[in-house]
Amino acid sequence: MVGITETVLRDGHQSLIATRMRTKHMLPAAERLDQIGYHSIEAWGGATYDVCLRFLREDPWERLRALKRVMPNTPLQMLLRGQNLVGYRHYADDMVEAFVAKAARDGIGVFRVFDALNDPKNMEVALKAVRKSGAVAQGTICYTQSPVHTLPAFVELGRQLAAMGADELCVKDMAGFMPPREGGELVRALVKEVGLPVTVHTHSSSGLSTLTCLAVTAAGATAIDSALSPFAGGASQPPTETLVGALEGTPDATGLDIEALAELAEYFRGVMEHYKPLLDTRSLQTDPTILIHQVPGGMLSNLLSQLKDQDSLQRLGEVLEEIPRVRADLGYPPLVTPTSQIVGIQSVINVLTGGRYRQITREVQDYVKGMYGTPPAPIDAELREKVLHGASPIQGRPADQLAPELTKALQEVRSFVPAADTAEALSYALFPAVFKSYRAALDRGLTPEHLTAAAVGIVAAMRTPAPAPAPIAPLPSAGGGVNVWAHAGRSSLSQNRRWVDAHRARTGR
Ligand code: CO
After folding, report:
1. Is the pLDDT of residue 486 over 60?
2. Ligand 1 centre and the CA of 349: distance in Å?
3. Which of 91, 346, 448, 449 could join 95 via S-S bond, C-beta 3.0 to 4.6 A?
4. How far, in Å, CA of 301 to CA of 124, rounded?
5. Any idea which of 191-200, 280-289, 349-358 has the lowest mean pLDDT?
6. Sequence spans of domains, the chain
7. How far is the CA of 444 from the centre of ligand 1 (A)?
8. How far apart are the first and last CA of the chain?
9. What band does 446 get if pLDDT is binned at 50, 70 and 90?
10. How remote is the CA of residue 201 from the centroid of ligand 1, in Å?
11. Residue 46 CA, ligand 1 centroid: distance in Å
């Protein structure tokens, strides 16, 4: 029997409607969701915290408590970016400890902890704090492909996470290109060598996810992530009902009632209808070109808008060629927030300035200095010298450089919210400007409802009449008439083949 982690309340809407689902559209379904018998329900963390404050003007902590009140039986799960919590930089250890303790107290039962570099040092404090809180600590392996991301290396990371106190492991295929067979081999090896339960998280972007879910289930995964069908497919997870149906009658049956799921899906179809103006239909399409260029969907749309701003859309092919090179220079980081942005922006700059690393972004400099953690492989020597001028990168944990920050945040936030508690200090410390404007809006008497309607309206107006070009369409290159996508693909594809061959040679499979 395999468990299902339902993602409709977090990754499902984060992937398809820019994380804009409001608490009031979650609550009517919460009781029914709680009765389904899910392994867990992912309902918090990731981008939801930021979006609650920034766009929906909702208190994320209030959402969590409200959901837990109606869902007492099913573990609620959150996505935690290790030492980055739900933000975009490293926070001091006292912040991590306070955040985890508070989230556990308010209803989180499973913490999925990951780090963009797969650096266990950046997950250690969070995993320990989760253990201390009594919740389940899920240590995450971000799946990616490179010469150093071999099966033995992933297993070794699994062992390190176990030694740090992880109760379970998660294989996170955030870009949605983990092939079924490789996924199966990875899960089998982790179960055998590490001995912890393994959950698999995929995205449907390339169309592989349903196949991969079946393969990892057969290989012994304890649970798989899926979203109810109205919020499934494309940039989101595979559909819950489909997986339940596919596994029915097999030894891996989920035990979930497909008719009860269909009723819930009916409800969420209405919710999706409401948010339709926010849905970019491209995010629902299957895009197998990711198997070739490995650029996740979100990163691709960022690249397109950056190039468009520079009036340089025709250079997309060159940028897609440059991305694997920059990634190699930086020691093959998995491409996920924030490394996807770091690699993407530097690649655009390398192409547009007509010289590699003629300009180096602040983020790449920090990365080379070790401020994001230890990369999976050494950084290119020439780039390192260019940034460090002979100095050494930070040794040890980046967060060791940070002084405690919670007490200071509490003092500061109390200067404008006199009764502020730990939760408000955390929100302020995570997103100072956003939290200030959130408070100011509430003080002006604007209800979250008003502001949400305004935010939806603004975003919808920004999205229509969608002027962005379809990314799969052939674009004229400088040479004229060449399909840049096909062109960009070939070299990356052969590079991938080399990696896979090297991987096979090394592992003898
Ligand atoms: Co995801």
Report:
1. no
2. 27
3. 91
4. 32
5. 280-289
6. 3-278, 295-400
7. 36
8. 29
9. low
10. 7
11. 9
Q: How far apart are CA 440 and CA 450, in angstroms?
A: 14
Residue 471 has pLDDT above 70, yes or no: no
320 Cα distance to chain centroid: 21
Per-residue pLDDT band at 479 (split at 50, 70, 90): very low
Instruction: Indicate if 295-400 has the same CATH topology as 3-278.
Output: no
Quick one: tokens of 170?
Answer: 């998660």
202 Cα: distance to centroid of ligand 1 (angstroms): 7
**What's the mean pLDDT in 101-119?**
97
pLDDT value at 465 more than 60: no
- The arithmetic mean of pLDDT across residues 153-161, rounded, is 98
Q: What CA–CA distances, in Å, run from 192 to 12, 163, 346? A: 31, 16, 40
Ligand 1 center to 176 CA (angstroms): 9
Task: Please tell me the distance between residue 184's alpha carbon and the centre of ligand 1 in angstroms.
Answer: 19
Write down the pLDDT at residue 497.
45
Least confident interval from 70-79, 254-263, 272-281 = 272-281
pLDDT at position 447 is 61
User: CA–CA distance from 250 to each of 20, 198, 209, 227, 255 (Å)?
Assistant: 37, 19, 19, 21, 10
Cα of 174 to ligand 1 centre, how many Å?
A: 5
Matching CATH number, 295-400, of 1.20.1250.20, 3.90.550.10, 1.10.287.370, 1.10.472.90: 1.10.472.90
User: If 0-12 CB within 10 Å is exposed, 13-18 middle and 19+ buried, where does residue 377 land?
Assistant: middle
Residue 462 has pLDDT above 70, yes or no: no
> Ligand 1 centroid vs 384 CA: distance in angstroms?
31
Distance of CA 295 to the CA centre of its chain: 14
350-376 exposure pattern, b = at least 16 Cβ within 10 A, e = fewer: bbbeeebbeebeebbebbbbbebbbbb
Cβ density class 183-210: b for 16+ within 10 Å, e for less: bbbbbbbbbebbebbbbbbbbbbbbbbb
> How remote is the CA of residue 189 from the centroid of ligand 1, in Å?
22
What is the per-residue pLDDT across 350-395, written as a single tens digit (0 to 9) for each?
999 999 999 999 999 999 999 999 999 999 999 999 999 999 999 8
- Fold classification of 3-278 is TIM Barrel (3.20.20)
Spatial neighbors of 460 by CB under 8 A, at least 6 apart, are 277, 278
Task: Tell how far the Cα of 109 is from the centroid of ligand 1, in angstroms.
Answer: 18
| Residue 138: its H or E element | strand 136-142
Q: Which residues contact 125 (CB under 8 A, 6 or more apart)?
A: 83, 93, 96, 97, 399
Cα-to-centroid distance, 172 and ligand 1 (Å): 7
Q: How confident is the model over 140-151, as pLDDT tens digits? A: 999 999 999 999
**Kind and range of the H or E run holding 3:** strand 3-6
Provide, rounded to the nearest whole percent, the portion of the chain with pLDDT above 90. 80
- CA 225–ligand 1 middle distance (angstroms): 9
> How many Å lie between the centroid of ligand 1 and the Cα of residue 236?
7
